[in-house]
Amino acid sequence: MGTEGDEDRRVIAGRYRLRTRLGRGGMGVVWRATDELLGRSVAVKELSQDASLDDTDARDRRDRTLREARAVAQLHHPHIIVVHDVVVEDERPYIVMELIDGGSLADRIAEHGPVDVAEAARIGLALLGALRAAHEAGVLHRDIKPANVLVESGTGRVVLTDFGIAQVAGATTLTETGSFVGSPEYTAPERMSGERTGPESDLWSLGALLCTALSGRSPFRRDSLGGILHAVVFDEIRTPAEAGPLLPVVRGLLERDPQRRLGAEEAERMLRAYRDTG
């Protein structure tokens, strides 16, 4: 993770000392911290508070956040970020996670350009495994994008992180309050249309992510939010020529009809076939 340089010496829940800010997003701030009880470095996500909410709504929002974070903490997969703890300090939720020594896929693309087909297949397989594990547990990620994929230095391990707007089966979610939260360039058309979504929506986002990894640019990038929405829902989808032998996978994941969209199991089979045969 990159370091932004801001420092904070607060201690959360009597054991997690916040040290350096690693990043900021729509859902909060991520800190490098020390677990002083166990003597290890961790990442702590401090979730933002909405000053416009009254006490009841703020409490409901906090409870939903904690419920969803606890559900994610039950996920055990080598390509899903490990959640160590979920705590509340001064009525604000904090999610304590493993600290990944490395940057995001978005940072990697910005610094070094697109990845080759073999690396894209490797990343795709890792994320498909992570998504299958989450979906089998009833958890939808809903914000798959390069910034939420970490690549560990040295090992190259791919880690899906930031389940901050995840949806848990059977629960009213943090984002079901009349506002859209997510990344439009990577959001499935059925979500854009306000329809109830399922695992297929995460797979669309993976297809868009693979396009970005291979070409350096999302196929749905436009100059305005309206342009992005129109591109996702209506425009011809121009998959990158760089995808080469992975084009069938990318096109299958970017099928607008979720009923016809390529499933995770078939996408894994196709990517493995490429990896094994080159």
Notes on the protein architecture:
There is one protein chain. The chain is 35% helix and 20% strand. The protein is of the alpha+beta class and 278 residues long. It folds into two domains: 11-98, Phosphorylase Kinase, domain 1; 102-277, Transferase(Phosphotransferase), domain 1 (Orthogonal Bundle). Strands 1-2-3-4-6-5 form a six-stranded antiparallel beta sheet, with helices on one face.
Q: N-to-C SSE series?
A: EEEEHEEEHHEEEEHHHHH
What is the topology, as strand order, of the major beta sheet? 1-2-3-4-6-5
pLDDT averaged over residues: 88
* Poorly predicted ranges: 170-180
Beta content comes to: 15-25%
Work out the radius of gyration.
19 Å
Number of strands: 11
CATH structural fold name of the largest domain: Transferase(Phosphotransferase), domain 1
The helicity comes to 25-40%
- So, CATH architecture of the largest domain? Orthogonal Bundle
- Kindly report how far apart the N and C termini lie: 31 Å
Total DSSP helices: 8
The tally of domains stands at 2
